[in-house]
């Protein structure tokens, strides 16, 4: 059984021989599991390799493009609808070009954001015409099936808008299966029917049908992304960036901005991954499917030597070209499914200025960790002697899956790209840089949001405090593995009162928001909807308790939230109850720490074990807190566990999904819903497309199809 590699090991190996040794070790391990893995899959065809892949997909190094060029490329496709989209976009760019003169390809001559400017954005309509399409792609050397937009890649379909703009996205489903889109991190204030998760805010869009996503970007700015929210289709490539600019964004000046999209990459279609994962027959241990490789802006390095004789073309790493002596904003995002990334650039500090669409006081580190769906903007200064430098994104850092006995053939968890100072030849060998002896790895709880209109509610106790626990199990009556959510609420006498235990499942058809809107207080939701009702403007604390040896990145739709506390402890009573900051970090995905566990058995350590704070990846809370502690749920303090306490204000009427962003886990039921301000939900305008889409989905079902 392979040993897992701690973040510290990877970190100290930054650019050194040690990293190379780790990589070699991985490669040798993956080659020997070839037979086992294919057997494990029960004879199912695991590899989707096509004979023509070498000739069809061979290509040279790709150069980075500034956002505008990428946008133009994203829509350079055929079709009438697409033409209209291109036209709208071109119009928008012309307007931009009045004030921004285009310089050399990889840089904007004028910063997109100028904090000193007092000019307000003039809101406009951003009208897009997107069709979901199926195609074959080769991102990492192996050709596989994929979904994309307008015949192109999802990661190239970039939504770029300004604060205050109205998005009008005409979305047509040209797939053979239903789909829907979600705009991650967008609050959808008063436009909850545009949020996207099927069964929650809309019906699935049947094949051949369309939905118009029409909403205004209120006061948000920063780095977001869009992705499919039907099944696990984002795995298949239906995901891409959603960037919101604002001239008044409170970040330091920079010269150019670039997207760095990180994701794990599976060679198998999401449906078969999901079927395999959930079935107790094929997956009795409940392991998540492990990806084959990782991508940086759609380019990865699958280990082709692991599949001799099969079509596979080793890819040249992605090249990010930046002029010397400039400051660049990199919008780094993890749009993947399962793995967290450690991201760094040899010889360069990263100044964090934005987290999940929240601008923060500049904070300098050497590495950032991005869990699934998390984003950071970092400022990178090209202040070294011109050369090439390695950009590193590693997914191999100590989560339990890294010690699974079998890894996919050719598995490569390390992705690299090149930071190229122009005009150096990007093909020149990257400079070897001595890594810092003690690299600074970002702890997001050290970040402080810049002053904004969003006020942190400083009341010590929330109006509603919810304890959210969960576990994965396959009960005797189940054919499928399920996640079970157990919810309690804190009563005024400081005891936990049970709310419900459920495995989340959205309705196939009648979306929860439609039921709430149409029926109001007469609505009696199915227990599987896992609903918690909130009144307008209540301050809500959610304590997520993780008895699992893996991290879980939790996300709430319709809100970002403050992180009050996160770490590991051996008693709920030791979780800090007093606020430790009056300006805590706010974001929309929180990493809920794994339980400290036995590295061989993966069992959470008993509560009386000692966990060393000095070597732990997480904050360790082992001291009794001052004041009244949180009560201990009965019989629960027997092991160490990971947790996060987050706070949000119920100021956004709607039905909002809260879930683990590892979509396998959501499929298993790891999620709940907040029904926020029922009276206000009933006042929401329900666009005609909502009922129309449900009717079309029903018709599709009537034709003998299944959801
Ligand atoms: Cu999870």
TrEMBL record:
GO molecular function annotation: copper ion binding; oxidoreductase activity
Protein keywords: Copper, Metal-binding, Oxidoreductase
Region (Disordered): 98-122
PROSITE patterns: MULTICOPPER_OXIDASE1, MULTICOPPER_OXIDASE2
Keyword Metal-binding found: yes
Domain Plastocyanin-like: 133-248, 257-422, 524-593, 642-677
Similarity annotation: Belongs to the multicopper oxidase family.
Name of this protein: Multicopper oxidase
Native source species: Chytriomyces confervae
